[in-house]
Amino acid sequence: MVNVLRSARRTTSPAGPAARAKKPFFLTLFLATIATAGLLSAVPAQAETASGCTYPRVCFYPTVAYLNANRPTASYRDITPSWQNLGYQARGAAVVYNSRNDDGARLHFTNGTTVCVKPGVYVNAAAYGTVDKIRIMDSANC
C-alpha cells in the first residue's frame, strides 16, 4: 500500500522535485506582482493634505494666519445642483482652497460676483467681497 501511494505522488509531478520547487516560487512572484500593482494603483486615489485641507474638500480660512497655520475653520465636499449657504465659520473667509482633484467650486459673494476655484487652487476671496455661498460641481472649470 505504501508503494502505491509513493508512485501516485510521483505520477502527479512527472518533471521531478526541481519542477515542484519552482512552481511555488513563480506563483508567489505572480501573486506578489499582482498585490504590488493593486497597492500602487490605489495611491493616486488619495490626495495629499495641503494647508490642513483634507481631500476631497473645499476649505475656508478666515485670515491668512489661519492658512499659514494649516487651520481651516470650515470645509465643504458635496457636489450639489444648487448653491449652499455658508455657515458662520466659512462666510466672509479671506482665503478658499479647493483640494479636490477634478471638481471645481463656484463661490458666490454678497455683491453678486461669482468666482470659480479650480482643483488645487487657492483664491483670495477677500479681494472679491464677502463670500456667502458655494456650489461644488462635477467639472474642473465650474
TrEMBL record:
Keywords: Signal. It comes from the Bacteria. Residues 1-47 form the signal peptide. This is Peptidase inhibitor family I36. It comes from Cryptosporangium minutisporangium. The lineage of its organism: Bacteria, Bacillati, Actinomycetota, Actinomycetes, Cryptosporangiales.
